[in-house]
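Lecture notes, continued. The same structure-token format from the folding unit now serves as the input rather than the output. Read the line below as a description of shape only.
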């Protein structure tokens, strides 16, 4: 320090001009991180883990608009498995890696934070729709609309990485400008690190459980009324319930396999392990995200409410619940 001036303040006069926006008081982050980490650690299933994270964001961080996307086996796209704060869940909708805020975060495996409304990031799903129109994503999920605010002013996407592999992306947004600061970003990065570790641990545990024994028929008792027509297209493994689109890909193939085994053998109980080993399923060599596919399937069935459900009644096992008889139609 080579010099200094000391002044006495005599008066302060307010003059017109542009003023900085007064930001609302943010939640205390350390207690919020601790409580959320504890809830993540208590999760005993992938579904509980996903729900605990998004619910904790709302309760402890006052983040009311959020969604969790999981990466597919190729790492080229992500699909929504849960969301909070939107008019529709968007479960099953997809976006491309490298496209939009979410896709860039996934591709670079770094958090992306937008402080102000920006035209190029105004709609997370608009970029996805444009990719479809431009022919860049011919087989991208089109029938399920992407959730999201129509005009988000603040956005934050945080990758979930474990064992040097992208597992998914946590995306949060707000209609308020400057809603997410550096501290919020650091907090969510910390939680996503916990999330990645917990995902790997739960998936490893579910793979070790023994096969479930065969059980009674799923359409007796309780399955009454008109049959649900289930149409299956083997080309892309898409499934329609009473001509209403449900799901495609690995999740669609799993549902068709469960319904086929139910019709042939009368089974309603299955295990993750037998699904992984089933040669009839198009599971990739890296199939450790089977839990997330089952989560996606069960929530799509819940959203459509066609009297078919997947009940995860114990770790590593699932039960097929049929409230109405089922008619299987293979369309080739």
């Amino acid at each position: 320090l080579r010099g200094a001036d000391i002044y006495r303040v005599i008066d302060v006069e307010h003059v017109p001009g542009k003023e900085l926006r007064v930001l609302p008081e943010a939640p205390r982050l350390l207690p919020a991180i601790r409580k959320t980490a504890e809830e993540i650690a208590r999760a005993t299933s992938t579904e509980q883990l996903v729900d605990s994270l998004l619910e904790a964001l709302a309760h402890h961080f006052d983040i009311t608009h959020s969604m969790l996307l999981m990466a597919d086996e190729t790492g080229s796209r992500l699909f929504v498995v849960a969301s909070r704060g939107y008019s529709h869940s968007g479960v099953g909708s997809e976006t491309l890696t490298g496209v939009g805020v979410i896709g860039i975060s996934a591709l670079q495996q770094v958090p992306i934070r937008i402080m102000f409304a920006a035209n190029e990031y105004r709609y997370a799903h608009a970029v996805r729709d444009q990719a479809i129109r431009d022919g860049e994503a011919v087989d991208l999920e089109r029938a399920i609309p992407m959730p999201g605010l129509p005009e988000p002013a603040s956005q934050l996407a945080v990758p979930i990485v474990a064992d040097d592999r992208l597992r998914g992306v946590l995306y949060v947004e707000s209609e308020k400008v400057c809603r997410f600061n550096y501290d919020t970003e650091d907090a969510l990065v910390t939680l996503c690190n916990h999330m990645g570790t917990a995902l790997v641990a739960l998936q490893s545990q579910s793979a070790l459980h023994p096969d479930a024994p065969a059980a009674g028929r799923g359409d007796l008792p309780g399955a009454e009324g008109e049959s649900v027509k289930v149409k299956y297209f083997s080309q892309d493994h898409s499934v329609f319930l009473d001509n209403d689109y449900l799901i495609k890909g690995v999740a669609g193939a799993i549902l068709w396999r469960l319904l086929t085994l139910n019709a042939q053998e009368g089974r309603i109980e299955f295990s993750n392990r037998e699904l992984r080993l089933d040669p009839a399923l198009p599971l990739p060599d890296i199939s450790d995200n089977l839990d997330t596919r089952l989560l996606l399937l069960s929530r799509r069935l819940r959203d459509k409410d066609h009297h078919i459900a997947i009940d995860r009644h114990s770790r590593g096992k699932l039960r097929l619940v049929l409230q109405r008889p089922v008619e299987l139609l293979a369309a080739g």
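Point for the exam: The first helix runs from residue 29 to 42.
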